[in-house]
Amino acid sequence: MIRLAVISGKGGTGKTMITAALAQLLPGKLVLADCDVDAANLELLLNPKLLRTEPFMGMKTAVIDPALCTQCGECMEHCRFGAIEHDGELYRVNPLRCEGCAVCVHVCPVATTMQPRQTGEINYSQTDRGHLVHARLVPGAGNSGLLVHAVKKMTMEQDKDCDLFLIDGPPGTGCPLISTISGVDAVLIVTEPSVSGLHDLKRVVAVCRQFRPHIFVAINRFDLEQSLTDTIQTWCREENIPVVGMIPFDPAVIEAVRNGRAVTFTNTSPAAQAIQILAAKLEQELTNLGTQR
Ligand code: SF4
Ligand code: SF4
Asked: Is 9 helix (H, G, I), strand (E, B) or coil?
């Protein structure tokens, strides 16, 4: 199984739209994972049928047993995250503020304990192109890197026999990205011709290089700022990174997203044709990777 993650240095580059189109175009038996767990929306373009849901237990948080609490207030004094509150009657832990440091349990082992808390859910669904594992975090909950790990683990366990594991990754260079790209064979970085696009591309490439996947780049809406597109192409050439996709600005993309479809699903617009070329190049590159193993 080849593992490919589609990522971007920042949000809004068209990463999810391209992932949905690649799901349609790349051949072989496929399994998909949406690792953009803070804003999971691949499902909006793939119309999955939910098969089952599992709870995701994040890190442990503190809980105070009111029956054992003597109301001394020491735990509140020692909690440097301000997670312990007194509501006029009882001491309580605010789980959204609790960082799981367990200092309060050291201070008061009788009345406080650390307990697992559900901070999200993982969904296992069926799409026209294979299973999709996607997740949701409870608003305000942290641990998105852990949830990404859980999503990938479920995908690998459930669909071991697939040819391609296609991941819609998170934007940025934080913990969810690192969790996404660890262990993948290749990443497709979607960028756009802007000063911030180039800056973020350089940052995400620097992070990826620590994990050694094969790196490919696609420039979305390349025709909006040709001089910056040229700069990105030059930089990629100097860095030995193949630019496998050049997708023009195309209102058909917006229309397709509005209709809950990949742009490649219903028409032969300029963007759809460019993504078909991207998919063909990527297929060739992934085949080469498979034969090199
Ligand atoms: S939980 Fe423990 S430390 Fe906190 S107020 Fe109650 S008795 Fe005091
Ligand atoms: S575990 Fe740490 S952050 Fe959470 S309530 Fe206790 S002292 Fe505060």
From this structure: coil
